[in-house]
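Quick start: what a row looks like.
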Amino acid sequence: MEVSSTLFTHVAPALMVAASIASAQAGKSPAKPAGTAAKPAAAAPQGPSAPQFTVDMLWPKPLPTHQLMGSAVGVATDAQDHVFVVHKIDSFTARTETGANATPPIAECCLSAPPVLEFDAAGKLVNAWGGPGAGYDWPAVPSGIGIDPKGNVWIAGSGGLDGQVLVFSHDGKFIRQIGKAGSAPAAVAVAVDTAYQGVSPGGRGAAAGGRGAAGAAPAGRGGRGGRGGAAPSLAPNSASGDMFGGATRISFDALGTTAFIADGLRNRRVVAVDAATGAIKSFWGAYGKTPSDAPTPAYTADAAPSQSFSAVTCAEVSKDGMVYVCDRNNDRIQVFKTDGSFMKEAKVAPATLADGSVWDIAFSADAAQKYLYVADGMSDKVRILDRATLTELTAFGDGGRVPGTFYAVHSIAVDSKGNIYTAETLEGKRVQKFNYKGVGRVTKANQGALWPGAGR
């Protein structure tokens, strides 16, 4: 049936009036005539912005045939965006992981890679070196690695008798030892192990040899619940001018004239060292005070802030000349000027107990270093903080073994493009790369595993 234009002319206004009346009765405003501009809706509140990442599922490339990476305890980048990793070559279960290391070998696979591994930006291993040599004491327990502005490689040691930091050229030639190793007590004879053709059947935590090959002296592994027997250890001495006490990380000022060493697992201080001579220039404890080795109560979230450091596991220097110190077991970051003057502090995940939340930190790659990345090895995640306020913006990661998850994330570094590299200790035994994707709005407090595409 056709509707004449005359009928529409009369009916349409009536319908609009009826609609207006109905809307008014319902408590609503009448519909606006076509062509009238709508009032803009109020903008929804937006969260903070933070760097965005995805895990690189195929980085690094496989190591040479049969080689394994052990507990990774340090990661650093150089000016060419090469990635250096230091790992513990004695952190394997001999019978099930490193049969090729046995004497005689019990299997084709596997054996430990050399302690220092250099990867190019694509993840290819381009050099490997390290271990005992003439003129220096290789650490019983390597615990950190740093690259100075000249490209030299610094390695810290945190074993019970380690009191030294070593300096090598970019390709592993020895340059200098700062400090000295302590003396071990006389060795205790152990029974000869003939089972498994030289591989200890005790495996994990056996009294004679811990996790190493048969006949090795027991050695603790540090970190979360170390394994094996207790190793001999020097007493802490945070006033020493010629030895370190469990050094863990090294960073450098912009000119490369001063190295800042977190000294750290026995001692409780930050040490500033002349990078050219190795001479100790100054050191300080919590709040810039004289460091104390006196026992302190175990950390609790509701206790008054400790006036001493606990485990000092990083001392990172920003471009604007601030030293950010990881006070790991006290769940805090303290910030100082390079002369040791205290500036401020902040708690990070303060409910974390045991080994704490602040294992290592790195700065974002922008000129202002606006963001701070915190490796939290207890909660198995990386926390992203606003550097100016030290407030947490978001976090990523979770406990696990697949890419993008962590087991004891120990160390963290950033390259010139803003990509993040993480190293996992204990049974983590790997390094991961997280590709920088720019800055975006935070939508989750904890992002979980950052898989490409739709996520996990």
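That is the whole record. The domain at 50-91+118-183+231-441 is CATH 2.120.10.30 (Neuraminidase). The longest helix spans residues 5-25.
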